[in-house]
Structure formats: structure tokens, C-alpha cells
UniProtKB/TrEMBL annotation:
This is ABC1 atypical kinase-like domain-containing protein. Residues 48-66, 81-95 have a biased composition (Basic and acidic residues). Keywords: ATP-binding, Nucleotide-binding, Transferase. Belongs to the protein kinase superfamily. ADCK protein kinase family. Residues 67-80, 96-105 have a biased composition (Low complexity). InterPro entries: ABC1_dom (IPR004147), ADCK3_dom (IPR034646), Atypical_kinase_ADCK (IPR051409), Kinase-like_dom_sf (IPR011009). Residues 48-115 are annotated as: Disordered. Residues 205-444 form the ABC1 atypical kinase-like domain. GO terms for molecular function: ATP binding; transferase activity. GO terms for biological process: ubiquinone biosynthetic process.
């Protein structure tokens, strides 16, 4: 087959293909490859029966009636309040207007997400095999594309739609570090990552596979004990959400409290280092990303984050701290952690629910969308300039809006970062400089932060400052900034080629997580098409920050 292909394509492209294959097999170097392939094919055949879409009615484990404890009147009242369809507003006219508009909002569709059930590869050999098999499949598909299409380079063929879909499925099956890195890359610009690959990462972000029931119950027994069912009155065996590190199940405790139980996938914590090393090799051999993306730094940052996020006791402590930080602000709601039902690999918290950002974008009136956007921006800037502590995962599924209680619900505190005062002094300085169009100060603060060395070309310096001016536009604009009509994205896209070409150093490590959240806050507002007075929010916090100096 290979001689036939080589006769149809350019010699250089065939050498590229051969080099990729050699690189991929280096990923599985040191492993008994024939036996590995045989064992994994047998394992894959066994899994086919359980690798099926899950879309049926969810199964629920219930305690026998005689064992169930009835909830106290106080708890029952709390449950009833959650489904109560009222929404208080200040003033009779405003209250009537709000109720009239909300009555026109349709009920959100029931949660009926289709998941694919797939056993999580746990052994080092099994996970290495998955990387090798994925790489070979990508390279083979690229060669097929080159055979059927003229004037297509190997790299262009590598980022085809078919390969993008294949990559997404592979990442969803692997979960853990590969999927987490893909999620971080999914918000990058098309100039940084090929469009089809970025879309594949976005698809993977939203559609992680779930554990088979046998694997799920094994995790529950390991973490909560063999009598884990006695700790719940009801437990939904099918999750309502699945992400890179774990999946989330709805349950009711023996006290009658509705909770969300996040369960970590087995083996993902132990495989972080080897997974990222293998993923790095795969990316390098396929040459998907530009060198100025500084993949080493990105992976090192992801590695550090993942080791923290895989300890749910650390996440629980961060979530408890966030409730303290924002506990006196009635416009936010953060679930209470149930420590007695939480371990290093299981996190149980109060179940809060509301409308998704996507549902709000499609169905909410303008004033409600504006309010959500204002709160997202207020939250983000308070995290930075008031508390210097930020939840850095901008995934829209971490935000819900309870329109009946008028609260923005905040979820998932695994990726919480703290920033030093010297770093934040410079960062708030560069944002303020952008609001007053002080280009010289923007440049100096960028050098102080470590964005630039100061030795870059004039063209690079100008492009960098222009990008800061673009990012600062919402905070410079007088009155409500219209995110639905913004031109920031277009302007930054135009600057990206220059910055990618002439960048001399990677951004400071704090920036990877910080800008991930800031860009996510902007994107949510763009999705909601909000109009928000960002300048007032920023200037109020800036004045408070300066007073504390």
C-alpha cells in the first residue's frame, strides 16, 4: 500500500508521512508492540458492546422505603423554594415589567444529553497505545487526502475535517490531561491553531465520554466505602455532565438534600505526566502548532494545574473560600460543599440549577442578558483587583442563571489561581494605561510583566501595544459597551500574525490562566450580545486598588 501511495505523491510529502510515523512509534518505544497491539485489539473488541450512545431513561438507585428518612420541614421548604416560579424586583413598575417579560421566556428543555459510554484507559500501556493509534490514523488519513486532492500539502491534509473529528473522538475517549489541554486550546484564535483542529477541541470540550456503570461503581466503593449506597436516598447512575477529569451525578442524601456528586475518572491523575509527554510528541511530530506558541510552556502550565485539579480536597477548600469571598454579594450563588461525602476523588456539593448561558442567549430579553454580562465582568474584575484570586476556567457550563432567585450560579473551582501583589500592580497598570491610551506606559508595564524583553523590533512592540489597546476597549468606552457589535476580535486577529512571527519570549506563566478567563468573560458577553458599562466597574475597582497602596 505504501509504495502505491508514494508513487502518487511528492517525495518530500512521503518523507513527511514517514517521519510522522517514526515519531509516533517513538511514543510507544520500549513497549512490546505486537503484543501490545494484540492485547489492545482484544480489549477494544470487548469494549465495543459497552461503547454505545447513552440516551435512554436514567437509572436511579433508591434505598428501600423503610430505610429512607423523610426530609425535615425546613429542608422540604428549601426544595419547594427551588421550584417556585416567582421573581422579586424593586419597585412595583419594575417588578411588573420583569414578570411580564419573564413570563414570555420559555421553559428550558429537559436535560437529555447524549453521552457515549466508554471505559477509561487506565494502564500506562493502554494509554500509550491510544496515542500511537491516534497518531497513525491521523497520518494515514492525511495521505489518503493527498491522494484524492491535488496541490494539498501534508500539513494541510493533516488538519482535514475527517481528522478533526477523529482527533475529537480520541480525546473524548482518553479524557484526563489530553482533553484538558484540548479545552485550553479550544479558545485560541484561528491564526494560532488551524480552524478544524480548534473546532475539534471545542467539540471535545463539550462531549467527554462517560464511564461504564461497572467502572463508576468501583470508584464509588473505593472512595465512599462498600456501603456507599447507604449514604444516599437516591443516586442517578447516568451523569448529567462530563468533563476532562470527571463526571457529575445527581443524588439525594439520606437527609433529603439534593446534591451534585463529581466523580473523578480512574487513572487520570496517575497518567498526567506520561499523557502530556506523549501528547507533546504527537503535536511535534504532526507539526500542528507554530513554534512561537511555546508549547513547552503551555504544557508545563497545564501539568501544574492538573496535579492540583485532580485533588478534590484542594478544590473543596477553594470552593469554601470562594463562598466566604463572595458570600455577602447576593447576586452570586456558590454551592455548599458536603465534606462528609467528599474525598480526594469525589466532590459532593449542594445542587444548584438555573438556565444555561446558551439558553439565556437565545431566549432572554436584552435587560436580563445585560445583567448576566455585567455580573460576569464584575466577578472577573473583582477576582483580579479585589481578591487577587481567580477561577480561571471560562467554560460557559460553569455558569448558570437562576432567574427566579436572580442569582448567577458559579460552579467548578478546580482551576483557582492566586496572584502576587507585584504582578497585579503591573497588570492593573497596563489595563489602566490602555483606558487612557498611554502607549508608552503600556509598553513599559509589558516589559515589567515579562511579556516583552524590550529588545523586540519596533513592529512587534507596536503590534503588542495595539493588542493591549484592543483588549482595554470595553474599559475605555464611555457608557454601555456593545459586545454584540464589538470589533476587538477582528482587530486582534489582524495583529496575530505579526506577534506570532516576532515574539521573542513566552508570556509570564500567570498569563495563561488569567487571559483564558478574561477572554472567556468577553466571549460570554459576545454570545449574549450584552451592553455593559465596563468602564464604571473597572474604574471603581481601580480607585479602591490605588487607595490600598
Amino acid at each position: 500500500m505504501l509504495p502505491f501511495i508514494s508513487s502518487l505523491i511528492r517525495k518530500k510529502e512521503f518523507q513527511d508521512f514517514a517521519g510522522v510515523c517514526r515519531g509516533i512509534y517513538r511514543v510507544v518505544d520500549g513497549v512490546n508492540q505486537p503484543q501490545l497491539i494484540k492485547d489492545n485489539l482484544i480489549d477494544q473488541f470487548k469494549q465495543e458492546k459497552q461503547t454505545t450512545p447513552i440516551n435512554e431513561k436514567r437509572e436511579t438507585i433508591k434505598k428501600p422505603e423503610q430505610e429512607q428518612q423523610q426530609p425535615t420541614p425546613q429542608i422540604q421548604n428549601k426544595i419547594n423554594e427551588q421550584i417556585k416560579d416567582t421573581h422579586q424586583r424593586k419597585g412595583k413598575e419594575q417588578d411588573q415589567q420583569s414578570n411580564d417579560q419573564q413570563s414570555q421566556i420559555p421553559s428550558p428543555p429537559p436535560i437529555n444529553k447524549q453521552f457515549t459510554e466508554n471505559k477509561v484507559p487506565q494502564t500506562a500501556i493502554g494509554r500509550v497505545y491510544e496515542f500511537g493509534a491516534l497518531g497513525v490514523s491521523l497520518a494515514t488519513n492525511a495521505m489518503k487526502t493527498m491522494v484524492t486532492q491535488q496541490n494539498v500539502s501534508f500539513r494541510q491534509a493533516l488538519v482535514s475535517e475527517e481528522n478533526a473529528s477523529l482527533l475529537a473522538k480520541g480525546l473524548c475517549k482518553m479524557r484526563g490531561a489530553p482533553l484538558k489541554l484540548a479545552q485550553a486550546l479550544s479558545i485560541q484564535e484561528d491564526e494560532v491553531i488551524p480552524k478544524h483542529i480548534r473546532q475539534a477541541f471545542e467539540q471535545a470540550r463539550q462531549n467527554a465520554d462517560i464511564m461504564p456503570q461497572k467502572q463508576l461503581e468501583k470508584m464509588l466503593k473505593q472512595e465512599l466505602g462498600s456501603d456507599w449506597t447507604s449514604k444516599f436516598k437516591e443516586f442517578e447512575l447516568k451523569p448529567f455532565a462530563a468533563a476532562s477529569i470527571g463526571q457529575v451525578h445527581e443524588a439525594i442524601t439520606t437527609q433529603g438534600r439534593r446534591v451534585a456528586v463529581k466523580i473523578q475518572y480512574p487513572g487520570v491523575k496517575e497518567a498526567i505526566d506520561s499523557d502530556l509527554n506523549n501528547l507533546k510528541r504527537l503535536m511535534e511530530y504532526t507539526n500542528l502548532f507554530p513554534k512561537t506558541m511555546f508549547l513547552d510552556k503551555l504544557i508545563a502550565n497545564t501539568r501544574k494545574e492538573l496535579h492540583e485539579e485532580c485533588d478534590y480536597k484542594i478544590e473543596a477548600a477553594k470552593q469554601i473560600n470562594y463562598r466566604k469571598l463572595f458570600g455577602n454579594q447576593s447576586e452570586f450563588a456558590i454551592p455548599e460543599v458536603l465534606s462528609d461525602l467528599s474525598t480526594t476523588r469525589i466532590l459532593t456539593a449542594e445542587y444548584l440549577y438555573g438556565d444555561t448561558i446558551d439558553f439565556a442567549a437565545e431566549n432572554y430579553p436584552q435587560h436580563l442578558r445585560n445583567e448576566i454580562g455585567r455580573r460576569v465582568m464584575s466577578l472577573t474584575l473583582q477576582e483580579l483587583f479585589k481578591f487577587r484570586t481567580m477561577q480561571t476556567d471560562p467554560n460557559p457550563s460553569n455558569f448558570y442563571f437562576d432567574r427566579h432567585k436572580n442569582k448567577l450560579i458559579l460552579l467548578d473551582f478546580g482551576a483557582v489561581h492566586e496572584y502576587t501583589k507585584p504582578f497585579m500592580d503591573n497588570y492593573i497598570g497596563v489595563i489602566y494605561a490602555a483606558t487612557i491610551l498611554d502607549r508608552k506606559e503600556c509598553l513599559q508595564r509589558s516589559v515589567d510583566l515579562g511579556f516583552l524583553t524590550g529588545e523586540e523590533s519596533i513592529r512587534m512592540k507596536e503590534a503588542h501595544v495595539d493588542s493591549i489597546i484592543c483588549v482595554g476597549e470595553p474599559f475605555r468606552h464611555q457608557g454601555e459597551f456593545d459586545f454584540g457589535e464589538q470589533q476587538m476580535t477582528k482587530k486582534i486577529y489582524e495583529l496575530m500574525p505579526v506577534m506570532l512571527k516576532y515574539r521573542m519570549r513566552p508570556p509570564p506563566p500567570e498569563i495563561y490562566s488569567l487571559h483564558r478567563k478574561l477572554s472567556g468573560a468577553y466571549l460570554m458577553n459576545m454570545r449574549l450580545k450584552t451592553k455593559v458599562n465596563c468602564r464604571d466597574i473597572f474604574m471603581n475597582l481601580y480607585e479602591q486598588y490605588i487607595k490600598l497602596q
